[in-house]
Design brief:
By secondary structure, the chain is α+β, with helices and mostly antiparallel strands. Helices cover about 20% and strands about 30% of the residues. The strands form eight sheets. Strands 3-8-7-19-4-20 form a six-stranded mixed sheet. A three-stranded antiparallel sheet has the order 9-16-15, with no helix packed on it. A three-stranded antiparallel sheet has the order 10-11-12, with no helix packed on it. It is globular.
């Protein structure tokens, strides 16, 4: 068995995920049944539809910046009319039925495709952290060896790294409302966004990134979202296969990581840059780590393909599409789907058979 088939064997599960989730949108919320695919890898090519906004657009900044992150959003828009194509055209035209549209993002994904609106190396307006600050690191004067330290805030308002007080003062919690100050205090650890504060270990010393207090969402957040990340909106449109959209998004993220020499730790939620509960449907249903697993699967298969492997799925079952998507339908108890994953390299074909057990759900 070659390393590709071994990788699939190690990462295939016996049962698919079958779960009812709540989808969150500003128009309405709805319940949606998630059924995962045969594999975490989506057996289809990455097809990107170019729809780059005109250089004259006000929502196309044009300034070039190095990319340090991939930022994942969802549209928060459940209207069946608002597909990926719709949102791509909205950025392109700078307007929609509700009026002018000033936001922008590099990509938007949905069942109807992946659309590219702003060049990857340019600034886009999607993260809520302004464009005044680029990615920057500050010396904490703290040393250590932990590659993934915990950042907290001391009682007197300084950042701490794994409990060691730094020389960096955390942003003060400050907010006004109707010209009145409603929050004005030293920030607490609980004010930090769920994904934490950027902290890098370089040559045995810790460095913390540019941070600020987002008064809108009352969270300490990180700069670099608009300037130094590639923003991806993912559709949660009612009537669509949301898991398919997640897989398409994961395939795109994997490519962008590869193209920009980024790591899995560089995949961030919109929440990281502003404190906003976004991508809300993934966050509220506990699917973020699973989404990262999808990205890791896509990324590794991409590396195999770069080595010359051709990878194919063979399945003869009406309940499964050619790309491995299990159709959203009722199953008899303990139904099974048999499928084969094959590889071809240097004229040598190898294959491995798999079986997925479908538990009956209500």
């Amino acid at each position: 068995m070659n390393k590709v088939l071994s990788f699939f064997k190690e990462n295939e599960s016996q049962y698919p995920i079958i779960k009812n989730i709540r989808v969150y949108g500003w128009e309405f919320e709805y319940d949606h049944l998630i059924v995962s695919s045969l594999s975490k890898y989506l057996f289809e090519d990455l097809d990107i539809i170019e729809n780059i906004a005109p250089e004259t657009n006000e929502n196309r900044d044009g300034r070039i910046r190095e990319k340090k992150y991939i930022t994942v959003h969802d549209t928060g828009d459940t209207d069946f009319r608002h597909t990926a194509k719709f949102w791509s055209e909205t950025v392109y035209k700078q307007g929609w039925e509700q009026g002018p549209y000033s936001a922008s993002f590099q990509y938007v994904t949905g069942n109807d495709g992946i659309y590219h609106n702003i060049p990857d190396n340019e600034i886009a307006y999607h993260a809520g952290d302004s464009t005044q600050f680029d990615y920057k690191l500050y010396d904490t004067n703290v040393t250590g060896e932990n590659e993934k330290p915990v950042v907290t805030i001391s009682e007197d308002g300084y950042y701490e790294v794994d409990g060691k007080k730094t020389i960096l003062l955390a942003p003060r919690a400050y907010k006004t409302w109707k010209e009145k100050v409603v929050i004005d205090r030293i920030a607490k650890t609980s004010d930090i966004n769920d994904q934490g504060v950027l902290c890098k270990l370089i040559d045995g010393k810790y460095y913390i990134g540019e941070t600020y207090y987002s008064s809108t969402y009352e969270k300490i957040s990180n700069r670099g979202g608009n300037n130094n990340s590639i923003g991806i909106e993912s559709c949660i449109t009612v009537g669509t296969d949301i898991y398919l959209t997640w897989q398409k998004t994961a395939k795109l993220v994997a490519k962008l990581l590869n193209d920009n020499n980024l790591s899995f730790d560089d995949i961030k939620q919109h929440h990281y840059f502003s404190g906003k509960n976004c991508p809300q449907t993934i966050r509220m249903n506990g699917f973020w780590e699973h989404f990262i697993d999808l990205v890791k699967m896509e990324y590794q298969v991409l590396q195999f393909k770069k080595e010359g492997y051709k990878i194919e799925l063979s399945v003869n079952d009406e309940r499964v599409k050619a790309n491995g998507r299990i159709l959203l339908r009722d199953f008899n108890k303990d139904d099974e789907i048999e499928y084969t994953i094959s590889t071809i390299k240097d004229g040598v074909k190898e294959e491995l058979k798999f079986k997925k057990v479908l538990k009956k759900f209500n």
